[in-house]
Amino acid sequence: MSLEESYALANANGDDLLGLLVAANILRTEICGNIVTYIVNRNINFTNICFVGCKFCAFSRGPREADTYFLTLEQMAEKTVEAWNLGATEVCIQGGLPRNLPKFHYRDILRAVKKAVPQMHIHAFSPMEIVYGVELTGMPLQDYLSMLRDNGLGTLPGTAAEILDDEIRHILSANKLTTAQWIEVIREAHHCGIRTTSTLMYGHTETPAHWVRQMRLLRDIQSETGGFTEFVPLGFVHQNTLLFAQGLSRTGPTLEEHLKVHALARILLAGSIDNVQVSWVKLNRQLSQLCLHAGANDYGGTLMEENISREAGATAGQYTSPERFQNLILETGRIPAERNTTYSRISIKVPLDEFTAEQSLEAEFA
Ligand code: SF4
């Protein structure tokens, strides 16, 4: 699809938008069948102390604020054991960036978690944290990533992307890594055998043209490396953010924007990044389900603990049990299936008596 055609889709309204959503839904059926995947995982946000100061972030705290916290390696190990005992296959570890972090702290987190539960998949450290780790240690990026991989890093979240356009990034966070740095970390991670997710934050100061350019950029990286596992659109939660308080953003995405971004991702990323995830912590239940009809095929993680969106004002909650996930998916007429981080293992989770003949056929097709 040409750039002009992609822009036209991103600006679709009224009946055209409806057409876009229907097309995305059909394409999703052709690519992913009728299955909606999810993962049982736990978020561990190990500290909220951060010097970066992103204006869209309501999670971070200055070091002298009253409600700061910093989890010890032992506490993180305990949380990993708890998660494993509750059926989690992944821990997702990210945190703020405190000044004077011990040089090899990210490596030591991996060691502590792996020692506690060797089988746990560790999905950890945003590209911003990787850049910080490189700064702290003075190691070349490739060596740093290889060291993390050799100490148990499974995959990397493709967060800290927001909008990959330096003008927008400057408004959102003047201290954040640049577009070029984000691309470098992701490419290098893929080359080191560390797969990553990919993300886009929408509903703040960006335009539909930014969505299109970002999706095309991700497509280009994917055709070079094949390292992306999924694409996750992240709706901006504006309530408690400086960006909104300073009048620099709109009030988060509209309903049309939520649906359009998921549909556009399905169409522009088809055949490249075939898993499009709904971020249920940022959307409410109905909206998550609607996005599953607008091109998405993955419900994300059960999370167990989620602090970042909640601090920003999201109300979708901190934990949804696997059973609740299954029911939410069944309500949409689709088949729930638990997956691992890289989508290489999928197991259908639906009681046989709830399995209609029609669903069985779809499952086989999927
Ligand atoms: S988004 Fe991350 S880097 Fe930015 S202020 Fe929040 S915790 Fe810090």
How much of the sequence lies in strands comes to: 5-15%
Arithmetic mean pLDDT = 93
Residue stretches low in confidence (pLDDT < 50, at least 5 long) are: 360-366
Helix count, per DSSP?
15
Based on helices, strands and strand pairing, what is the structural class?
alpha/beta
CA distance, first residue to last residue:
26 Å
Radius of gyration: 20 Å
Q: Given the C-alpha coordinates, what overall shape results?
A: globular
Pattern of helices and strands: HHEEHEHEHHEHHEHEHHHEHHEEH
Number of strands: 10
Q: Indicate the percent of residues in helices.
A: 40-55%
Major sheet attributes: 6 strands, parallel
Distinct small molecules: iron/sulfur cluster
Strand order, main sheet: write it out: 2-3-4-5-6-7
Describe the structure.
By secondary structure, this protein is an alpha/beta fold. Helices cover 44% and strands 14% of the residues. The protein contains 15 helices and 10 strands. It has helices spanning 3-10, 14-32, 73-85, 105-116, 127-137, 141-150, 166-172, 179-191, 208-225, 242-245, 255-268, 285-292, 308-312, 322-331, 357-365, and strands at 35-39, 41-45, 90-94, 121-124, 153-156, 195-202, 228-235, 298-301, 335-339, 346-348. The strands form 2 sheets. A 6-stranded parallel beta sheet has the order 2-3-4-5-6-7. α9 (208-225) links the parallel β6 (195-202) and β7. It starts with a helix and ends with a helix. The structure holds iron/sulfur cluster. Iron/sulfur cluster binds at residues 50, 52-54, 57, 59-60, 96-97, 128, 173. Residues 50, 52-54, 57, 59-60, 96-97, 128, 173 line the site of iron/sulfur cluster (SF4).
